[in-house]
Structures are given as C-alpha cells and as structure tokens.
Amino acid sequence: MGRTLQNTMINLGLQNACDEAVYQLGLDMEELEEIEEDAGLGNGGLGRLAACFLDSMATLGLAAYGYGIRYEYGIFNQKIRDGWQVEEADDWLRHGNPWEKARPEYMLPVHFYGRVEHSASGAKWIDTQVVLALPYDTPVPGYMNNTVNTMRLWSARAPNDFNLRDFNVGDYIQAVLDRNLAENISRVLYPNDNFFEGKELRLKQEYFVVAATLQDIIRRFKASKFGSTDSVRTVFDSFPDQVAIQLNDTHPAMAIPELMRIFVDIEKLPWDKAWDITKRTFAYTNHTVLPEALERWPVDLVEKLLPRHLQIIYEINQRHLDHIASLFPNDVDRLRRMSLIEEGGTKRINMAHLCIVGSHAVNGVAKIHSEIVKTQVFEDFAALEPEKFQNKTNGITPRRWLLLCNPGLAELIAEKIGEDYVRDLSQLTKLHKFVDDDLFIREVAKVKQENKVKFALYLEKEYKVKINPSSMFDVHVKRIHEYKRQLMNCLHIITMYNRIRRDPSKLFVPRTVIIGGKAAPGYHMAKMIIKLINAVAQVVNNDPMVGSKLKVIFLENYRVSLAEKVIPATDLSEQISTAGTEASGTGNMKFMLNGALTIGTMDGANVEMAEEAGEENLFIFGMRVEDVSELDRKGYNAQLYYDRLPELKQAVDQIKSGFFSPKDPNLFNDVVNMLFHHDRFKVFADYEAYVKCQEKVSELYLNSKAWTKMVIRNIAAAGKFSSDRTIKE
Fold first, then answer.
1. What φ, ψ does residue 692 adopt, rounded to 5°?
2. For this structure, is 590 an active site residue?
3. What share of the chain in percent tops pLDDT 90?
4. Which of 52, 151, 350, 714 falls 20 to 30 Å from 122 in CA-CA distance?
5. Could you say which of 296, 369, 399, 478 is catalytic?
6. How far is the C-alpha of 519 from the C-alpha of 535, rounded, in Å?
7. pTM of the predicted model as reported, rounded to 2 decimal places
8. What's the catalysed reaction (predicted)?
9. Which residues are CB-neighbours of 17 under 8 A, at least 6 positions away?
10. Which CATH code is given to the segment(s) 407-625+683-728?
11. Is residue 562 within 8 Å of residue 517, measured between CB atoms?
C-alpha cells in the first residue's frame, strides 16, 4: 500500500488546506510525509495491483472490501553492504499505525489440524487447534466522491485458554509463552515473488486469511435483508448475486473448499446446490505462467493441517474427472492432465486447477498473457469451457501514480484539458492536439527536468555520487529475477563502458543508469545479479576516462515511496523481459503516464502500450513469443551468439576474468555458467537487438524536441492503463 497520508489528503481534496495549515505551524508537509513508514505488505506487482484496485473500487463507488493479513513484518528492508543485498526486518509498526483501527468485536476463530468424524448427520471436523483472527480496519477513500471503503487485515491471536485446557496442567508459564506459536501466523510476509515455497506456515497463512474472511462475508450476508431465514435456516440462493469474491492468484484458493465446507457441513446444503453457489461466487485471476511460481501443495501437508478440506478437494476432483470422462471416454492422459491432484513422487494439489474448476470466470492480466493462459498453460480447461476464460488488462491508479507523485505534470495536463481526466483517464487523448504546440512541448520538458534535478539531489545525498541532471535517466526498477533480465541491462552497461574507453573523443550521449529491486533472500542467482551490478558500478563510476558520461546506481530498498520519487524523473523505462514471461507488468504503465519512453520487448502490457501509442512511439526490440518458441524448438545455443558478437564476447570475458572483481576473479562464475549453459530466458539471443535499439534511443535523446513530442504521444495514449478501466471491465 505504501504511505497513506498524502493519498488521503488528495482523495479528500484537502491537500492544499493541510499544506497551508502545517506551514502556518512552522512545519514542512513534505518533511512530515517522509516520516511515515511504507506499508509493505506484499512482494511486487500482484500486491501493488491490489492496492490500485482498492483505490479504483472506492473511486467508482463500489461496495468493495480488500481482505488480507496484517503482517507484523512486511517485505524486508534491503541494505547494500559491499555490493551484496542484506535483509533487515521491516518493523513497520514500531511507532504505531494511525490509519488502522482494531475491531476486537469482530474477532473470529480459525481451526487447524484435528480429524474428521463421519456420521448420519454429515461430517464433523473435531479436536482442532483454534487461532483467533483479530481484524484491523484501514479506510480506503475514493477520489473526491464521499466514499470510504474498508481494507480489513487479520492479525493472529491465541485464545486465552491456549495450551491451558490440555496436558499443560503444571507448566503455566510455558503455556503462556507458547501463545507465540499461534500468533506467528501473522508475523511475517514470505518474501518470494513469482516463486512457490511449500512451507507449512505459509499454508497456515493462506487458510487463516481465507477462513476469517469467509466467516466475515457470511456474517454480513446473514445480517442483510438478502440472507432471509426460513425460521432457522438461511436461504443462500441469492448469495452469488450479493457476494463476488475475486481470488488474487491461487494464494487464497483454499476459499473454494472452505466455502463448500461451510455450506455442506455447517449450513447442511446439498452438495450440488452448494457447488453451484460456490462456482457462481468465485472468480480467479492468474498472475504468472512461470512453472516454478504455480502453487502445488503436498497432499500429506494438507491432510495434516486441513483434513476436511482435503476430503472436499478429493470430492470436487472426483466429480470433475467423472464429467471429463463422460465427455472424453478412454482419454486417460487428459484425465491425468486435468486432475486437481498430481500423482508421481509426492502427491500434490494443483491449486490453479482447483481455482479454474471452482470459479465461473478466469482472467489473465494482459491480452498476450490471457492468450497464453488459454492456448498453453490451461489449454485443456479452455477447450472444455472457452467462455470461462477472459482478459482484464492491468491498470494503475492515476491518483497515486500521477497526481501524488508528479503534481507538476498533473497540473500541466489539467491546464490543457481540465481536471476531469483524473477520474476518466481516457480523456488524455485530448493531449494529441497539443503534440505540435511548442509552448506545451517546452513545459513538458521543463517539468521532467525539474523532477530530474530533484531526484539527482536525492541521489547525491543518499549515494554520494555526482549526477549529471541533463544525462538520460535510464531506469530499470522491479523485483530482481532472471526472467526480467537485469543481466541484459548489465551487459549493455558494460558495452557502453567499453565503447567510451575504446574511443573517448567520440560523441557519447550521457546516461545515468539506475537499477533497483529486491531479490528473494533464498534466490542465489538474483543476489549474484545485484552484486554484479554493484561491481560494474564500482568500476564505471570511478574510471576517469568515463567521467560524467556514464554513471551506474543500484537503488537501495526499492519500494512504493521510492517508486514515487524515481518514476517522475525517468527518461527511459526498461521493460525487457523475455517475450511470454511477464504476465502484464504495471511499472511500465507508471513510466508511460509520467513522461518516460519505453524500451521493451513485445511482452505483457508492453504489447498494448505499443498498440495504443503506435509501435513507432516505443522502442520495441527482440524476439516475439513465436520467435522464442521457435528457438526452443531448435534448441538455444548461447555459445553461437558469444562467438558471433565481439562486444558481447568482450563484456562476458570481462565478467568471467574478474575485471569487475579483481579480489575474487571467480566471483561471477555461476552467473557466466548460467548464461552459457542454462539460461531459460535467452539473454544472449536478444543482446544484439537490445544494443542496437539503445543506439536509436540515444540518437533520439539528442533531439530534445522530437523526444518530448514522443513523450506527449505516450502520455496521450496512457488512458487505457487506468485501474479504473480494469475494475469497470
């Protein structure tokens, strides 16, 4: 969610009044804003998307709730020590959180472990361990519309009789200390982005948020006029008309068997009716096609932690497979492919399959991604129910990502087309008629320059490097992952460095290359990539032959509040994932809206950005999805590119020989070995096209007016990428 203060003032229309009042108290509002901690309760794009969606739902006046976990420790704080990432705990609640209100009156029990007893009256889940879910509510204000929605985050609490009812008769002290075991559920966010780690505590977290939330939803339904009661029993027929639950990836997939358990075991609905209501209630958003990111929980773990849910999943699967067998008799391989249970080795539950079967709608997050979902990842399911599969291209909230972070540009736009665009971003197309307006061109360039000067001062303060504010700010900020190809950017930096040294008198368009992002603590390669970038920066930034022509900065602890500073100051946005791997991306949209140009592959929402602005107004390069599959079919041989491209060979040889790590020449052996022998993301295959495309970027940057006209065309085409539009769809 990032910080809340400024966003609240903007959405309430109070920013100027507050600025003035605080100024009269002899204080500086910006200084005050810098004191607030970020709420960093997610990892990357998926979590930030949810935050943008909450802002849009409130702004559109929808009666919507965001549910999640109130982690005591959010995403770790990243420190760079000697070029390496070091993690520190994010103790974001240390000074309290003024935006939240605990609601102990709505506390709910969540059950774990235990066993199932079957009788004539149905199944009973008994002998469970209970953890209490304590809700904390945070207001979510809409933009200037007198709407305030709620984000409800659950915190785990041990019941007061925890460990005191049984066994522990004598050891009272130990029993009280053991309360921590229950309360650990909401202690810390798992820091993996696009990677599944099958840990028991993580499954507990997933079920904890689901069980508390569904009880809350059903309580609210029963209290409303719709939950009409037949003297004793609630009639749930209207439930899907009153309640829609969107599953943000498979992380809350246990909601499907949990709702079935409530309907069948507790409310005593017949299975078929319960299943019909459940399917009509849930919809599922898929966020990634990377196989290592798909959740596949071991059956043994689920059986231990949630025995009744496993039985329900088996029953769902049985009926699902019976249906497929009736449509495709004797096609055993299809049954194997479509089962919710994966056999072979340890039996696992494929949570994506559970979500597809248990939902009435499934969506990808950009056109190209939704196509891949339909034709590759879940093709069997799409063949069965093509109408179930949809696209909802991601978006960003223009309140935080323009008004809040770039007031200069927002005001400039408002002068030309009025203020209505903030609620209807499609109105940005009106800027097209100013693309040749010399005054407007100069004003847009001036706002960008002011943002760059301000950010350059921040960098000089934090990193003690002299920044040339007229250099091109070339920015690559996102989670560090092989598929996002920060390594390809690194190879380009080395190539630029070598060109400057080879011919120091030749014209070189000065650049400040800024790379930032966190690596999952257990992701060795990602951490090596950070070290490599810092090692290269060390050499480049201290070479007198380079001077101010090229500077490299690794931006420490990238987070929402830092994104709000760097994005408005960016000239060139790096969106260079291997085609077919970035489901959508949303940083790409933030840069576009804030007057940066994009260098990128035809991947994720880049494709639609090029469609909206015209491909000639983005710097598109490299393999398309079809080229990647063709290369896979032929077999990718990295050595070929190394042998054919002298500049690539030179850069790789420098990394390999220890040019950037003289104290430990073998430091980057793992990186080089990966690039040659198991690079799933084909960095070398796109290197040449990338470097050539970067030359075109530099050439255009020399012509300030032509550059700025292209910027205006991009801003004018950014309207589609409002999260308001996504939510309306």
1. -65, -40
2. yes
3. 96
4. 350
5. 478
6. 17
7. 0.97
8. [(1->4)-alpha-D-glucosyl](n) + phosphate = [(1->4)-alpha-D-glucosyl](n-1) + alpha-D-glucose 1-phosphate
9. none
10. 3.40.50.2000
11. no
